[in-house]
Structure formats: C-alpha cells, structure tokens
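Reviewer 2 asked us to include a model.

Predict the structure of this chain.
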Amino acid sequence: MPLVIAQLGLSPDSLRGETVVVTGAGGGIGYEAARSLLWLGANVVLAEINTTTGARAERSLAGEFGPERVCFVGTDVGDEASVGNLYQKAVARFGKVDAVINNATIAALGAVKDLPIEEWDASYRVNLRGPVLMARAFLPGMIDRRHGVFVCVSSTGTAYLGGYETFKAAQAHLANTLDAELEDTGVLAFTIGPGLVPTETASRAVGQLAPLLGMSVDAFFAQNKNAMLTAEEAGAGFAASIVFASRFKGLEISSLAALKAAKIDYGAAEATGDGTAIDAGRREQARGACAQVRNTLQQQAADWRRRSLFERQWVIRDFKKAAGMSAEEWLDALAQLNSALDDQREVPCPPLAKLAGYYEHLAELAKGYECELK
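Predicted model (structure tokens):
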C-alpha cells in the first residue's frame, strides 16, 4: 500500500536539501513523521532517548530511503548537554538544521491532587524544558541563515491529564511567543496537535485514563473515533506541516489540518473549501458581500498597523487565532473569491465560518463594553 504522504499530491522533492530534527523519533508518530519527511526529500535526524528503538528506526529508514539522508543521535531532550550534542552531530552530518519537530513526550496521568510531584517534574522536563532547550540550541543558526521552522506539539486537555496537558498547552504558548520574537527573521514557529492516535504510548495512557473516566478502553476509543488518525497519518501531517509552514505561521493546527492543506480529506474536519456553483442572482449578492467584508478588513488591518506595538500584536494574534489565517492571507483569499465571482468561474470557498466567528467574537466583546457604558 502506498505511503500516506505519497497520496497527498506533494512532490517528493518538496523538502529536498532541508534537514529536519525529529525528537522522540524511535517509534510511533515521530518515526512516521521522519519516514514522511524522507519521502519528501529531507535529511532527517532521529533524536531518541531509547538507543535500541532509535538505532532500529535508523536501520529501517536507511533501508527504505538510503543511509546518506538519515542518522540517529541518542538524546535526552531535558538535558542541556545532550541537546547540545544533538545540535553538534546534526550540523556535523548535514551542515545545518532547517526545522525541528518537538515530538518527544511522556504522559503523566492522574488527578492533580494525587499525581506525585516527581511525575510533574518529569513531565515538565520532557514536555516543556525539552522544547525550550531545543529552541536555545537550534534557533540561533536558523536566524543567522534567515530560514527555519520550529514546531511545538500540543494536545487538548481533559480530566486526569493535567500532569501532561499543562505542559503541552505551555508548548502552544511557547510557539506563540517565538512567533512574535521571530517576526521578520525568516524563521517560522507554530504548534501542531496529532489528534488521538493509538500508538503504544497513547494506548497505555488510555488504559489508565479510561477507568478514571468511568469507561472501558474500547468505549473510550469508540467515543473518540471521529478524531482518530493512524500513526502514519499523524506523522504525514507533521511532515506536511513543514511544507506549508508559511501558511501555519503562528497558528495552533492539527495533523488533519496539515493533511487537508495537502488536498486530502480524512473526513473528520471542516469543509475543505471545494468549489461551489451558484446562480446569477446569488453570485451578484455574494460579490457585494465579499467586497464589503474585504473593505472592512482592509480598514481594520490599516488601523492595527497604527496602534502601539503591544496592542498591535495582541489584536493581530487574536484575529489570526479566531479566523485561522492572517489578515493578509484573508485579504488575498477574498480577492481570489471576488475574482472568481467576477469571471463567473466556480467559486473557491475559503473557511468563511471562521471569519464569521471572529466577527461574532467582536460582537460579544462589544456587548460587554455596551453594558459597562450603561
């Protein structure tokens, strides 16, 4: 059966000449991300604390793609010297590192009041300290070359996962901070979540979590089946996100969103934006609405540029988070939509529900101000 990454419409040369470090790459999503990256033409450094699985992953991938583009470096991401060694060996082997995917993780489960502080510390060490050390080691070189991608990996929280999710959520904040600090450097930062993937680590964690939630493991997976991806699908999403990094800059996305960006539909996400044929009357109405929305957004974006630094950063980030794209990307999408309406072509449909959601968000904020004024 063809690799998932080979079915996405991407070129096997998409990342040719790029070098990507994937932490926690000895198995599961990390291994599959490395495999997909290699298919896309990248050189890949497998950073893995377990030397047995790391060496096995290197042998397997070298057998599939050749030994010249993959190497394994035993790495403890929570140890500064170990991360420094990873950087030195990666650069010695491939000359540079263009992207980092912070996939390494451990899952600490239990109620906040019951989870031993030692497990909180261990989770912090891998799930937050690790990405910070990786940023300190790899970002300076990327900034010097004005080229790079730094990917944090998040997860959605629920009961009994605080010792894990707290630090995964912090990774999203870390990526947001880096996005602001790396503005105009040529280096991009964003966050990706794999979704629910039944890897060995996840299955073991669910085995502990499900009883705490009062259900069986099978019932847990059945309840969440619409959010599930295979490890290969999630890894392919991680790899595709590097290809589309400029689109995802500053966002918190999912593997599924990255797969959809590569034109494949796994059936568990929002509408993809396929073209829609509409009649002449509705086309004229849509043209007027499109022009009005675009004009409003142009005025807003111009106003944002005149604001103070911190206020400007806040409103731009608030818009991007709610609307799913930057104002510039939305203006371009609306211009394409308007052009299609003018030429009576099939209409490309951007995710207008997200843009509408942003303005609904503003309306709710305005209600609060109105109440205060009264």
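The beta strands are 19-23, 43-48, 70-74, 99-101, 148-153, 187-193, 252-254. The chain has two domains: 4-261, 280-373. We have added this to the supplementary material.
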